[in-house]
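Session log. Operator J.P. requested a structure for one protein chain; no other inputs attached. Running the standard single-chain path with token output.
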Amino acid sequence: MSSIISTILTLFITLPFLGLFVIFLIFKLVTKNTRKSVHKALDYTTVLFIFSVHFLILTIWDKSLFWLIILIMIVIAMMFVLVHWKVKEEIIIKKVMKGFWRFNFILFFLVYISLTLYGLIHRALTFTFST
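Structure written below.
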């Protein structure tokens, strides 16, 4: 049973778009609301994209930069709190966290796509020029 769960988690971390699609379908079937389903799918798959970026970095450069990912997320959180405080003159934690989390989704989604393309091109060129 644990190997099945491990396989499913590995599949979703390797292909976070699959996780995004599955979670969207589940929420779409449950809520019948497309907008709410998209938002929930984005919220829940952010973690998949974060771990996917970590493992792509590990695969491409053989270095774990997870500490840098966490540091970047902390700096982004601080910036969100500061901007929210400057604009609203009070901090509403729920809104700050929601904005921070959705921004992280966009950031790690774009980084995932960039690293995937970079990894593919890098490996193709390495293979081409090594033979």
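Operator note: The two ends are 43 Å apart (CA to CA).
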